[in-house]
Task: inverse folding
């Protein structure tokens, strides 16, 4: 396909595609003349991934280049590449100075038997949540963690099954990225529905 068709199918303007080509985020097409190149479905998949990283993930061009470098490393497993993408789209570090919250998070991870080091974003984010809970007087909030862990383990299985069904590593990483945003929004919506349903059942039984 020509670059104009690549733009139409991807939804990315041609000037932006040319910019991505100059920055090395998209491999060059096959030259058919000095000023014309042909692109394939592989270019289309890569372009969609770059678009997702930039527009949904909010990553800088330099960060996108790092993610794509991990993707193109033949020695890097999908598991490690997924970790690279997840780390790249994680929000900035949070304050983890609260020792009580830090210990609560450490004990939780240990109970689950999970390999989640204290310097990982997920661990720091949990410390931040527990710190906030204590600051607003919700000291029993930490008791919910094990229940959340059981539910989230099932969600993680669903997420992984979805990603592993992708045809290529590019598509799998695009699924991880999109799932981070779409999945979180979906969980929030379905959780609200379920909470309403459970609340109505309790109200009916009490009536």
Result:
């Amino acid at each position: 396909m020509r670059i104009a068709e690549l733009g139409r199918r991807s939804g990315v303007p041609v000037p932006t595609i040319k910019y991505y080509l100059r920055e090395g985020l998209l491999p060059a097409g096959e030259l058919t003349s000095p000023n014309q190149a042909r692109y394939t479905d592989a270019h289309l998949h890569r372009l969609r991934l770059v678009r997702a990283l930039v527009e949904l993930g909010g990553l800088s061009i330099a960060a996108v280049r790092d993610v794509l470098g991990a993707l193109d490393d033949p020695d890097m497993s999908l598991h490690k590449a997924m970790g690279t993408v997840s780390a790249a789209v994680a929000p900035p570090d949070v304050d983890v100075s609260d020792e009580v919250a830090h210990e609560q998070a450490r004990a939780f991870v240990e109970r689950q038997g999970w390999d989640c080091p204290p310097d990982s974003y997920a661990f720091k984010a949990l410390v931040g949540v527990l710190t906030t809970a204590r600051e607003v007087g919700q000291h029993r909030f930490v008791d919910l963690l094990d229940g959340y862990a059981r539910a989230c383990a099932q969600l993680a299985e669903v997420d992984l099954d979805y990603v592993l069904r992708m045809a290529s590593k590019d598509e799998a990483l695009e699924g991880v990225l999109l799932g981070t945003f779409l999945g979180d929004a979906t969980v929030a919506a379905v959780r609200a529905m379920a909470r309403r349903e459970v609340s109505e059942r309790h109200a009916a039984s009490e009536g």
About this structure: The two ends are 65 Å apart (CA to CA). The CA atoms of residues 73 and 81 lie 9 Å apart.
